[in-house]
Design brief:
One of its GO terms (cellular component) is plasma membrane. By secondary structure, this protein is mainly α. The protein has 15 helices and 4 strands. The two termini are 37 Å apart.
Length: 381
């Protein structure tokens, strides 16, 4: 990979931002599936996984970086899509619940397939955009991120991601760091359980440092619960109990999509334990990087994950890609890698040799990896 740098004017050009608006194509596709019914309800999974895998293969990698120090006021067209998506997803989701629960041609497996596709939309795009928004400082961005998470009943992701994952990534205290040889079907139930608990404890600890009870009204868990309850009430009002069932189905699929991505982003990677519960700082080589061009448009550069953890406050247009000398590289983009993660023997065949090569490259002096593999090193201070 030969990394080049873009001029600031090239980045500020609205045409440069346009490819990142490709997420909007999901809306007419899911409505086409809803109106047509039958096998067309599966249009979204075919589009987002199948087509983008093929487009990545054809288009290859994007090896160009923006100047990370450029003036951020010129990034309005990039930020706009992340703010616009919340209202778009809200209208799409609840209009779909209203329509589908009254459409005679949609029943049984057609409804399941349609709202599986809606979950792919709210997980692949919605949670990903909420992730970007929650890392930004403006209150409107963070509130929009909370609303997107409420649509999938996963509000605590904000607390867990900002207070736990970024602080403790690649250490035993981070539930989201997938361990070496841990298959996705062991990882998924573990993170569902541990992330909720760790998010609650993180918020409780912050309140305790302020001399406040964990039940204080400033605990964001009250906001998460209120927003999620409002979403359930709206689903009930628009579609009855079937509407609630379809809403929860898409939420479950979205959460599964999120945790599939979490699984592949840090699989087998660990920070060096320095002794006495101290760990080395987070570096680009503690996250898997993928420079695939087209899927990074759809995922607003989420696959440049090595830089995101190195500089968490960096907005997505300025995230840097790295070559293999500076960060480990996934063999393909997220659409392919998440599919591979669903087949643990295939995943291990693809990724375990890469993890072992990563250890030799960055930590040739460590001969015993048993404590790292089992996450039994001391908890970070």
């Amino acid at each position: 990979m030969s990394i080049t740098t873009l001029d600031d004017d090239q980045v500020r050009n609205p045409v440069a931002a346009l490819p990142f608006w490709v997420s909007l194509t999901m809306v007419p596709i899911i409505w086409f599936g809803a109106v047509m019914g039958g096998h067309w309800v599966l249009a979204i999974p075919v589009y987002s996984w199948g087509l983008y895998s093929l487009l990545d293969l054809v288009a290859g990698e994007n090896e160009r970086n923006a100047d990370p120090l450029m003036e951020r006021s010129g990034l309005g067209w990039y930020r706009a899509i992340t703010l616009l998506w919340g209202p778009v997803q809200f209208v799409t989701l609840f209009a779909l619940i209203y329509y589908a629960t009254r459409a005679p041609h949609l029943e049984g497996w057609s409804l399941v397939g349609l709202f599986f596709g809606m979950g792919v939309v709210s997980g692949t795009i919605g949670i990903n955009y909420s992730h970007e928004l929650l890392h930004q400082k403006p209150k409107v961005d963070r509130w929009m991120g909370d609303l997107l998470l409420a649509m999938v009943m996963y509000g605590h992701f904000r607390s867990e991601h900002l207070l736990v994952h970024h602080r403790y990534v690649a250490t035993p205290r981070d539930p989201v760091t997938a361990r070496y040889n841990e298959g996705f079907y062991r990882f998924f139930p573990r993170v569902l359980r541990e992330c909720l608990v760790s998010a609650w404890h993180a918020e409780a600890a912050m309140l305790d440092r302020k001399g406040l009870s964990r039940w204080h009204r400033s605990n964001p868990f009250w906001r998460y619960l209120a927003l999620q309850a409002a979403m359930l009430v709206l689903a009930l009002a628009l579609g009855g109990w079937l509407g609630i069932g379809l809403f929860l189905l898409q939420a479950g699929v979205a959460i599964w999509q999120l945790e599939l991505v979490n699984y592949i982003e840090h699989y087998g990677l660990t920070r060096r334990h320095l002794g006495d519960g101290k760990y080395e700082p987070v570096k680009p080589h503690h996250s898997w990087n993928s420079a695939q061009k087209v899927s990074n448009w759809l995922l607003i550069n989420l696959q440049r994950h090595s830089d995101h953890h190195f500089k968490p406050d960096r907005p997505f247009p300025l995230l840097q890609t790295y070559d293999a000398n500076d960060a480990p590289q996934l063999p393909a983009g997220y659409p392919v890698m998440t599919a591979a993660a669903m087949v643990p023997p295939l995943w291990r065949r693809m990724m375990n040799p890469k993890v072992r090569a990563w250890r030799k490259q960055y930590y040739p002096d460590i001969s015993d990896w048993s404590a790292y593999k089992s996450a039994s090193n001391p908890q970070p201070r």
